[in-house]
Write a structure and sequence with these properties.
- There is one protein chain.
- The protein is an all-beta fold and 218 residues long.
- It folds into two domains: 21-132, Galactose-binding domain-like (Jelly Rolls), CATH 2.60.120; 137-216, Immunoglobulin-like (Sandwich).
- The protein is 0% helix and 58% strand.
- The chain has no helices and 16 strands.
- A five-stranded antiparallel sheet has the order 5-2-7-8-9, with no helix packed on it. A four-stranded antiparallel sheet has the order 1-6-3-4, with no helix packed on it.
- Residues 1-108 form the CBM6 domain.
- InterPro entries: CBM6, Galactose-bd-like_sf, Secre_tail.
Length: 218
Amino acid sequence: NEHPGYRGSGFADYKNPINDYIEWTVEIDVPGTYNLGFTYANADSAPRTLQLSDGGTDLGILPFSSTSSWTSWSFLSGPNVFLTRGIHKIRATATGSSGPNLDELSLSYTSASPSSAFARKSIQNNGFIDYLSDQAHKAYPNPFNESTKICYSLKEKAHVVLSVYTLGGQHMKLLVDNIQGAGNYLATFNASEYKAGMYVYRLQIGDKVKVGKLIKNK
């Protein structure tokens, strides 16, 4: 816990160059396609790569680019994977010169089904699990051309931090960073200066984090 900026009670640190791994036990209530996202830090100038797997099933290799320092934490949107109902063992194994420091694994439900009330599970390394409904946060219009609005609700007073990142985890713009009372809020993301593509917004409310995708049209 010597590198501040992480959430919860600590983070996971890879000690050996290869074959070290971190494994999360995840219980899926609603089967479907989920995006695996990681909050991490990497002070090396070169990317550090992790081999992802689910109970022995290969999910591919994911590079974690440099964040400049061990106290600079970024979000990286990883692969979309189909998860069946039940228990899954998501493992991230170091493949090269050790792995990055990992603060959190996020699973974002990407199904288009409007009947699902389950949108995301947030699994921190300290075991905290946060269940969020698909109405807890959203962006509209999405896809969008010049700008979009990210709306969210607070049940009680909390410190809110809302930022937009590239899929590679590079911070683009800070939209909100203050204490807000209970209620409904809108934050506008003006993307006129950015090229078309997919981006990620990260909404932190207190010690809970919500993640969503943004798609800017050409």
